[in-house]
Amino acid sequence: MNVRFAPLLMVALGGCLHFHDGPMPGEPENATWLNVEGARVRYVDIGEGPVVVLLHGFASSIENWTAIMPALVKNHRVIAVDLKGFGWTDRPVADYSPAAQAKLVKAVLDERGVTKFSLVAHSWGSSVAMAFTLENPERVERLALYDAWVYESQLPSMFHLARAKGVGEVLFGLFYDQQIEERSTNGFFNEDFVTQDFIDAVERAFERPGTKAAALETVRGMKFDEMSEQYKKVTVPTLLLWGREDLVTPVSVGERLVRQLPNASLKVYARCGHFPMIEAVGESTRDLETFLAGGAP
What we know:
Blueprint: H1 6-14, E1 32-36, E2 39-46, E3 51-55, H2 69-72, E4 77-81, H3 98-111, E5 117-122, H4 125-135, E6 140-146, H5 157-162, H6 167-175, H7 180-186, H8 196-206, H9 211-220, H10 224-228, E7 238-243, H11 251-260, E8 264-269, H12 276-279, H13 281-292
């Protein structure tokens, strides 16, 4: 291709990313919704007892917590949220930074009458949990983070490039929904977890309207340098749960984070990748339940 036409191609492709408000094809019939912070938000609120709030990671949804929810609801009221731009929640023209997502979570909890709770998050959702805790320390009783994605150094080169206007639209327009099987496999130590049903579910989620635009704005909101300097202010008891073979967020990230948090401990699970709540569900859930019950971090 003649390089003179490259800018024109970038502009043309950049215009292909669109946001989306409102219902989407295939929505679960029994889903519950709240309209907060300019978005129609899907959430789950089940069980009774001390409240536990679950936040999923990038390009994920409430369903990532399916394996641990039956254990948690035995002794807790569990609230899980599809964050803005993911799952079945709207993909509006909006701010997708961790701070903005934390405001959305706060609005959901306010609507549900929840003031104090334990906060559990995975991967990029951990940055939302940290933003929430920094802004509302009096509301978070305990904090548990699985394979946290919270530092600038964790961002791949594509994410850095995508911050540039036009470039990001091209990259996400062309590549965001590609190589799903390979990317999914990178998240697990045991590839048996990456079934065809798993891949099909990811592909269907990526096809929902507005997904690419929302994902791009989420990446542009991952400005962790200034935020990460504040992590030392998080004094709430914190448990870090990590897969030893995580290729997405290596254990070295957990070791860095546990040194920065003044009241934290790190649990590492052998033969486990980026999803301990799936791949090491038994051991990690027992550790989580012990921690939520008041055990030392």
